[in-house]
Amino acid sequence: MTATAAGTTAGPRTGSGLTVSGMRVSFDIGSRGPFRGRKLLRAVNGISFGVEAGKTLGVVGESGSGKSSAALAALRLNPLEAGTVHLGDTDITSLAPRQLTAARPRMQIVFQDPYASLDPSMRVGQLLAEPLVVHGSVASAAERERRVTQALESVGLRAAHAARYPHEFSGGQRQRIAIARAMITRPEFVVLDEPVSALDVSTQSQIVNLLKQIQRESGTTFLFVSHDLAIVRIISHRTAVMYLGEIVEEGPSAELYDRPAHPYTAALISAGLSADPDSASTRERIILRGDIPNHIDPPPGCRFHTRCPAAMDVCREKAPEAVPTESGGTVRCHLHTEGPRLDGRTVLPVLAGGTDPARS
């Protein structure tokens, strides 16, 4: 590519770090009967995490884990029941509506489905110019055209593509357009919500490489949401694993993938959610029993104990506290403080039925 990321040559913003503290997100799902009152589905249950400026945090988990709800809440596209979100020094949660609108160019999103996220009635050039018009950041039509051309070239497309409609492009090309649209305002922070899950494997690789290049050139901070640990390992500097609205493990991506400290993380890798077969082939298959519990009435204690192959009595009685892992992350699992007392080491030997090598 000859241009830098989506129009970042003229005074780009630098990425800002994201800090989330005590985030809770609930949805009112209505009454369960005339005398039972309202019911709340708590999608995100008091999580805290941070993303270093210019880096990528991957958030992974099964469907219903709360990962997308948390990501949208970080942009205030979902309402927060509690907690705070800071983008750099700005408290996003305290912004009034007009202030939030003014802050939107600083934080953008790329959605999962490139077929649904682009207005089919608009030409690509109009789609890309729209954020510049809405936010009034570029008054000159000539400058908007220049920025649109620059944005297209930065994602591997040509200036001539601005005159075409979305239906004239492949899925991968449409996602490139969606990325260009997100980056054209020169954001400090971008949520990537399952941006490659609707694409074939070869196109997934191209988009991941494009995102990595954009980040190198722009310094933008990314929150990458996915069910695919293998892709997250490639693109993310750190990974947070969510289960039933809570973060159960967080740490450097490569280390978390190779030496998971939580049984759920190990199970995700084992189950082959597009996991690297060379890595997974040396591990015992971990079968999770049962179904994901009800979000409205989650189980007591550790929320994962109903499916965990290594659950102990204490897991049913109290929720685990976060403890540090040997890789520089945190894990919430009683196996690290009770029973085998792993003290932050990998859980794989326990799940395989062996002994912890550090204890033998």
From TrEMBL:
One MF annotation (Gene Ontology) recorded for this entry: ATP binding
Top-level taxon: Bacteria
Alphabetic keyword roster: ATP-binding, Nucleotide-binding, Transport
Residue span, ABC transporter domain: 29-269
One of the GO BP terms on file: transmembrane transport
PROSITE patterns (UniProt xref): ABC_TRANSPORTER_1 (PS00211), ABC_TRANSPORTER_2 (PS50893)
Pfam families reported in the protein's UniProt record: ABC_tran, oligo_HPY
The keyword NAD is annotated on this UniProt entry: no
Family: Belongs to the ABC transporter superfamily.
NCBIfam families in UniProt: oligo_HPY (TIGR01727)
Protein's name in the database: Oligopeptide/dipeptide ABC transporter ATP-binding protein
Source taxonomy: Bacteria, Bacillati, Actinomycetota, Actinomycetes, Streptosporangiales
